Amino acid sequence: MQYLDEKLYEYSRSDFYPFHMPGHKRQMKAENLRDPYQIDITEITGFDNLHHAEGILKENQEAAAELYGAEKTYFLVNGSTAGILAAVSACTGRRGKILMARSCHKAAYHAAYLRELSVRYLYPALDERLGLAGGISPEDTEEALKKDPDIQAVLITSPSYDGIVSPVEKIARICHRYGVPLIVDEAHGAHFPFHDSFPESSLRLGADVVIQSLHKTLPSLTQTAVLHAGFKRVNRDKLEHFLGIYQSSSPSYVLMGSMAVCLRYLKEQGREQFARYQENLQTIRNSLKQMHCLHLLGEDVVGRGNVYDLDRSKLVIFSAGTGMSGPGVHDILRRKYHLEMEMEAEQYVLALTSLMDTKEGFSRLEKALLCVDEMLEKQQKTQGGKTGRLSIEFSDGREAAAEEQVCTISEGMELPGEEIAFEESEGRISAEYAYLYPPGIPFLVPGERISRKFLEKAENLKVKGLMLQGMKDHRMEKIIAVKE
Ligand SMILES: Cc1ncc(COP(=O)(O)O)c(C=O)c1O
Q1: Is the CB of 439 under 6 A from ligand 1?
Q2: Which pLDDT does position 438 carry in this prediction?
Q3: Do both 203 and 300 map to the same domain?
């Protein structure tokens, strides 16, 4: 057996380049964090307590609030996951009701389960062929709030994993007209305020709670995140109560130290480093626009399918129409070029970039993608196929996605269940989730009726080598359903 630390160290010496999280890209040089054992302490005198911050942690959180322009900022050491759990719990009552985007991360579903909430969904626009979700419609939000006065909070994800930004300002105004808080999962947008070329953060657009993972797109250690809140519509005591429940009672000083390093770096060097990053990003985006077979998701998506803006730091490369799947492209990038992507979907791969990416890293990715594109073009020519521009066609996501909700998520999970054959489960009520991870957005949620359409989608993904997660049986031969 090889010990994990040995394997990690070995990997860190290899020439594999990360186009995935964490955003420090293994490049950050932090003098004070060079030896983690030296700074790993507990809540001793002079070092404050995250759960009742009155000293250095209070000051550091205030510095974060100032940098982001928030009323109050909380450090999270259990990722955005802890922030989502706490925000949803604080903004709803037990057995209450939430309106949330179907495209939310599984943490939002887990919050609904823990608080036994009933859930109404907002379905983002969808290009079903490409598997690309668009934005959330303000009109749908208004309609749902008008129809259901029991809704206590609204939760959306913006940007999406793919960098799609919803019309947050309009949605916030609607929520406030109906007297409910808007929670925005901005896990992928912690870098937004630091360069004008990125979309505006939800924090400046009226959201009541905004949760951001520092570790995803900024130079901070994995699990570090922040929750920003305003208290006009959110009860501060309740929020802090739930943060105390969902966060570890031993918050790591190594992680919090890395947040401090990140915040100082942004304050002192952010402007200059983001300007350099922006240049590299623009160079690769311009170059990849020339691809003939592969297609880079670009600005043309804005203004359609409720897409308000696009986070240009995410490089979403479609392979649709080339005869090669997303996992196929990723496999070549990994094996031949030693480039590891953040995510592979049926029709695309996603490279997560950050300000810590090197010029050399960008150049390796650019060359590799241009070579794969050339190979695909040659293949298509010999087969007499045509290369053409890919067009994104959004339609109403409700039609493509809606599974019938029979009971709440917690009822679906807590009622007696039984294991049945996957392919014979049509019509039964699921007691399990089914999602691809990443991005962790469920196709099926406990309490929903299993449809033929879902089973066909699952089979289709399996054939392409994409296995659904969330079910006890990872081979997708069995599924747990509520006993009849
Ligand atoms: C949209 C979104 N929200 C929340 C999370 C959870 O974030 P964390 O890993 O920081 O807990 C993720 C993780 O991938 C995510 O993609």
Answers
A1: yes
A2: 60
A3: no
Which residue has the CA at smallest separation from atom 9 of ligand 1? 79
**Structural domain range at position 295:** 270-382
Asked which of 228-237, 250-259, 319-328, 364-373 is least confident by mean pLDDT, the reply is: 319-328
Atom in ligand 1 nearest the alpha carbon of residue 157: 1
Quote the CA–CA distance of 54 and 51 in Å, as a whole number.
9
Residues 237 and 159 in one domain: yes
Contact between 84 and 76 under an 8 Å Cβ cutoff? The reply is: no
Look at residue 345 and tell me whether its pLDDT is greater than 80: yes
Alpha helices in 73-126 (DSSP H): 79-91, 106-114
Residue 382: other Cβ atoms inside 10 A: 8
Q: Where are the beta strands (DSSP E) in 235-368?
A: 295-296, 309-310, 314-318, 339-341, 343-344, 348-352
206 and 303 housed in the same domain: no
- Tokens (6 digits) for 261: 């390093």
Ligand 1 midpoint to CA 260 (Å): 21
The alpha carbons of the chain give a radius of gyration, in whole angstroms, of: 22
pLDDT of residue 346: 87
CA gap 16, 385 in Å, rounded: 34
Q: Is 103 in the pocket of ligand 1 (CB under 6 A)?
A: no
Q: Mean of the pLDDT values across residues 168-174?
A: 98
**Would the pTM of this model clear 0.90, i.e. be above it?**
yes
Averaged over 409-432, what is the pLDDT?
A: 96
Query: Which distant-in-sequence residues (6+ apart) come within 8 Å of 5 by Cβ?
Result: none
Q: How many domains does the chain have?
A: 3
